User: What shape does this take?
Amino acid sequence: MRNPQGCAFFCEPAGTREIDTFTCCHCNRVVHVPASQPLEAVGDFCRQCMKLICERCAGRPCVPFLKKLERMEQRYHARRQFEILAGL
Assistant: This one.
């Protein structure tokens, strides 16, 4: 991979292997990219957020992971506020 975001080290009996990695912007999954394979074999590039995504997120709508976390926090705070107002 030309510009990897990280690397993974595998310690095996035959020696240590190093593989380039990137993190999917949509689901926060770490994807291993073997040196001999192109990016299209293990993931894709989102044209909306302009970031790398994994195979599972390719072809789906663009919803970055941070937006998902923000929505979860908003639901939590709304539910918490309801519980306080309802006296639960």
User: Anything to note?
Assistant: The chain is about 25% helix and 30% strand. The mean pLDDT is 86. The longest strand covers residues 15-23. The CA atoms of residues 37 and 57 lie 19 Å apart.
